[in-house]
């Protein structure tokens, strides 16, 4: 099961209209999508995207709804489908609920979690790209160190990278268990509240799926696809994502005469000056919500 995070807050910000056009960039298990569909009338439309085929497979019930169009693609490529549907530039609300879904994390074969043994895959789209095992087998020690430091904020990045490179000369690191054990044996114990492999797994997942690059490339495309008074909501789960969203939203909300004349975007305003976080009850019911932060930008009317 995937429980949608900050659902009431998202609906309050998006205020779906019965005949509105909405976009869910991260369909996952369709929790947010289902709630949006419930608010749409016959003429409302929801365009949903996910790069993971398992997302679509798990929600055949929702995909049967004629008001929903699902496209399996990275959200950075969503513009093509939105233009083909002739809704780009007239979207009333967009949601990005970043990161991985609970089923992705909980399915050992997907290789996202150190809590379940499985092949070290970590690709959200298993039809293309390099697995985490393949990347770890070929990357230089300094690239691995850089990845762990930058995307995992792992203080022991150098030590872990060295250990990975030493260890791969003996045997391939092709399972989540092997990697988790290797990191646990390398990072000093007792220093962290988290499992010692948490940061390494986060870093590799971000690297393998180019998560920050996808986000940075997609935000301008989504902003420009909004209708006047349309809103873009983004839920992020770690500071690296949230920093990109916060900066981009702030920058978009600058007075319009601060942008160079030939390429001025539509004026925007910050709907959320501070990020919206889940309340105690939601965190207690769904511990994965704890690190969620929601921000919203509106295109001027
Ligand atoms: C946190 S889950 C979304 C959960 C969903 N809101 C729900 O209520 O079920 C994130 C989903 O976004 C997808 N995803 C992450 N990055 C993506 C990207 N760049 N392009 C398309 N889908 C992406 C993942 O495959 C995952 O299914």
Verbal overview:
The structure is a single chain. The chain is of the alpha/beta class. The protein contains 14 helices and seven strands. The protein has helices at residues 7-14, 31-39, 53-58, 60-63, 78-84, 102-106, 132-138, 141-152, 157-168, 176-184, 198-208, 211-225, 239-252, 280-285, and strands at 21-24, 45-50, 68-72, 91-97, 226-236, 268-270, 293-299. Strands 3-2-1-4-5-7-6 form a seven-stranded mixed β-sheet, sandwiched between helices. The mean pLDDT is 95. The chain binds S-adenosylmethionine. Residues 2, 4, 26, 28-32, 49-52, 55, 74-75, 97, 99-101, 124, 214 line the site of S-adenosylmethionine (SAM).
Please report which band the strand proportion falls in: under 5%, 5-15%, 15-25%, 25-35%, 35-45% or over 45%. 5-15%
Cα(first) to Cα(last) distance is 38 Å
Structure ligands: S-adenosylmethionine
Sequence of secondary-structure elements: HEHEHHEHEHHHHHHHEHEHE
CA radius of gyration is: 20 Å
Helix percentage range: 40-55%
Mean of all residue-level pLDDT scores: 95
Structural class: alpha/beta
Low-confidence stretches: none
Overall number of strands = 7
List the strand order in the largest sheet: 3-2-1-4-5-7-6
Q: Largest sheet, described in full?
A: 7 strands, mixed
Report the total helices.
14
Query: Judging from the principal axes of the Cα atoms, what is the shape?
Result: globular
Q: Secondary-structure blueprint of this entry?
A:
Layout: H1 7-14, E1 21-24, H2 31-39, E2 45-50, H3 53-58, H4 60-63, E3 68-72, H5 78-84, E4 91-97, H6 102-106, H7 132-138, H8 141-152, H9 157-168, H10 176-184, H11 198-208, H12 211-225, E5 226-236, H13 239-252, E6 268-270, H14 280-285, E7 293-299
Parallel strand pairs: 1-2, 1-4, 2-3, 4-5
Antiparallel strand pairs: 5-7, 6-7
Helix pairs in contact: 8-9, 8-11, 12-13
The chain binds S-adenosylmethionine (SAM).
């Amino acid at each position: 099961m995937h429980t949608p995070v900050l659902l009431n807050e998202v609906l309050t910000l998006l205020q779906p209209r019965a005949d509105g056009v909405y976009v869910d960039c991260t369909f996952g298990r369709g929790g947010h999508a289902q709630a949006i569909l419930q608010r749409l009338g016959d003429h409302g439309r929801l365009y949903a995207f996910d790069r993971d085929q398992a997302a679509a497979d798990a929600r055949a019930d929702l995909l049967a709804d004629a008001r929903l169009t699902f496209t399996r693609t990275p959200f950075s490529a969503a513009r093509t489908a939105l233009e083909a549907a002739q809704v780009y530039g007239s979207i009333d609300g967009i949601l990005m609920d970043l990161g991985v879904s609970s089923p992705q994390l909980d399915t050992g074969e997907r290789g996202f979690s150190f809590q379940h043994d499985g092949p070290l895959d970590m690709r959200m789209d298993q039809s293309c790209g390099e697995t985490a095992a393949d990347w770890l087998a070929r990357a230089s020690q300094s690239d691995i160190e850089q990845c762990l430091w930058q995307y995992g904020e792992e203080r022991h990045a150098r030590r872990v990278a060295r250990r990975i490179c030493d260890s791969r000369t003996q045997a391939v690191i092709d399972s989540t268990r092997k990697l988790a054990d290797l990191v646990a044996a390398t990072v000093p114990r007792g220093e962290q509240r988290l499992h010692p492999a948490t940061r390494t797994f986060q870093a590799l997942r971000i690297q393998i799926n180019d998560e920050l690059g996808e986000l940075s490339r997609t935000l301008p495309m989504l902003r420009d696809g909004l209708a006047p008074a349309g809103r873009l909501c983004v839920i992020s789960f770690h500071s690296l994502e949230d920093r990109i969203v916060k900066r981009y939203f702030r920058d978009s909300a600058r007075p319009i005469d601060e942008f160079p004349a030939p390429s001025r975007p539509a004026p925007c305003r910050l709907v959320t000056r501070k990020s919206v976080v889940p309340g105690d009850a939601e965190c207690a019911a769904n511990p994965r919500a704890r690190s969620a932060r929601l921000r919203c930008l509106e295109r001027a009317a």
